């Protein structure tokens, strides 16, 4: 059977239409995102929410590759990669970014926040604006504030009810001045260590204890290697989501907006997730055999007061007073 040239061209055109309409459109933007959380960690939840929301608001525009559980290194390595642009976005605790913007250390001063609402009012107000501008100078844009949680103390040696009970205990802290000074003010031996090294260090008794929120203690399975939990509530610990500024600026305005909104909505969902699960997480830890102590929080608050003056010398009184103005 012979076909005319016109017929052949028509068939060929139809085939091209079928090919191009059947093939899915390639994502315009490939994006690498890193965080330190295990599959049960609050940052993992946040990362999943971010990908879901971003796909709903900008379908097919982004191809997000998530690297959880410190796959690309510790938090400091992640932030370094974000600043260099080898990772596009990170979700980390606020202890690490202080190596770039020292003023962020003020948000980790013990007992500086009255409650969650006052903390987020400051992050979404002038405090957040100041920290965002300072971080931009280091090539990273703060997109949102999430939550690590309210931090408590655990150890394997004895119950802790007053600061004096920590004397001599080797407690792992973030590689951050404010945490080191806080533990020293209690009498403990502050031991800076990367987050992803902590479980093994507890298991091998390199350190006696650590301090983290109940959600983190549960999700990272520290209850397997820790016996005593003291509800000190010493720091309300936020998380911060940052994107490489060059990556962000290359996006068209529509995608900038979608990215920023997805980061904000995911952070708010994560904050609710942490708060809603606090009581359940504590009961779970008790069910796993952890011995829970109710300490004299006021004594811990008083013992921690010197940290404010120490941090003021490092970050300046302006940012501290700005945070305090939101606690009225």
Features:
D-Maltodextrin-Binding Protein, domain 2, alpha/beta, 328 residues
Task: From the 3D structure, determine the CATH topology.
Answer: D-Maltodextrin-Binding Protein, domain 2
Label the overall shape.
globular
The CATH superfamily is known as: Bacterial extracellular solute-binding protein, family 7
Uncertain residue segments: 7-24
| Class inferred from helices and paired strands | alpha/beta
Instruction: Give the number of DSSP strands.
Output: 9
Question: Number of DSSP helices?
Answer: 12
Multimeric organization: single chain
The topology string of helices and strands comes to: HEHEHEHHEEHEHEHEHHEHH
- Report the sheet-strand fraction: 15-25%
Number of domains: 1
Mean pLDDT: 93
The CATH level-2 architecture is identified as 3-Layer(aba) Sandwich
- What proportion of the residues is helical, as a percent range? 40-55%
What separation lies between the terminal Cα atoms? 89 Å
CA-based gyration radius: 24 Å
Report the CATH C-level class: Alpha Beta
Biggest sheet architecture: 9 strands, mixed
């Amino acid at each position: 059977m012979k076909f005319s040239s016109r017929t052949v061209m028509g068939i060929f055109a139809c085939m091209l239409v079928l090919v191009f309409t059947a093939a899915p459109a390639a994502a315009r933007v490939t994006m690498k995102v890193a965080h330190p959380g295990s599959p049960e960690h609050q940052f993992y939840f946040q990362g999943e929410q971010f990908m879901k929301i971003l796909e709903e608001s900008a379908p097919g525009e982004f191809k997000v590759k998530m690297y959880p559980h410190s796959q690309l290194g510790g938090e400091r390595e992640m932030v370094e990669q974000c600043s260099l642009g080898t990772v596009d976005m990170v979700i980390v605790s606020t202890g690490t970014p202080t190596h770039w913007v020292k003023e962020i250390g003020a948000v980790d001063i013990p007992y500086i926040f009255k409650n969650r609402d006052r903390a987020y009012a400051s992050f979404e107000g002038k405090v957040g604006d100041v920290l965002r501008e300072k971080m931009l100078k280091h090539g990273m844009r703060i997109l949102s504030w999430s939550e690590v949680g309210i931090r408590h103390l655990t150890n394997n040696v004895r119950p802790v009810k007053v600061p004096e009970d920590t004397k001599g205990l080797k407690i792992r802290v973030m590689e951050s001045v404010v945490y080191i000074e806080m533990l020293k003010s209690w009498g403990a031996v502050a031991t800076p260590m990367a987050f992803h090294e902590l479980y093994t260090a507890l298991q091998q008794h390199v350190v006696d204890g650590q301090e983290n929120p109940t959600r983190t203690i549960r999700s990272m399975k520290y209850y397997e290697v820790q016996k005593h939990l003291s509800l000190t509530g010493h720091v309300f610990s936020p998380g911060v989501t940052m994107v490489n500024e060059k990556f962000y600026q290359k996006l068209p305005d529509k995608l900038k907006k979608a990215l920023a909104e997805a980061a904000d909505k995911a952070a708010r969902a994560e904050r609710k997730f942490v708060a809603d699960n606090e009581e359940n997480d504590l009961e779970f830890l008790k069910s796993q055999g952890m011995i829970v102590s109710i300490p004299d929080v006021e004594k811990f608050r008083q013992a921690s007061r010197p940290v404010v003056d120490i941090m003021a010398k490092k970050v300046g009184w302006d940012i501290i007073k700005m945070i305090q103005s939101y606690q009225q």
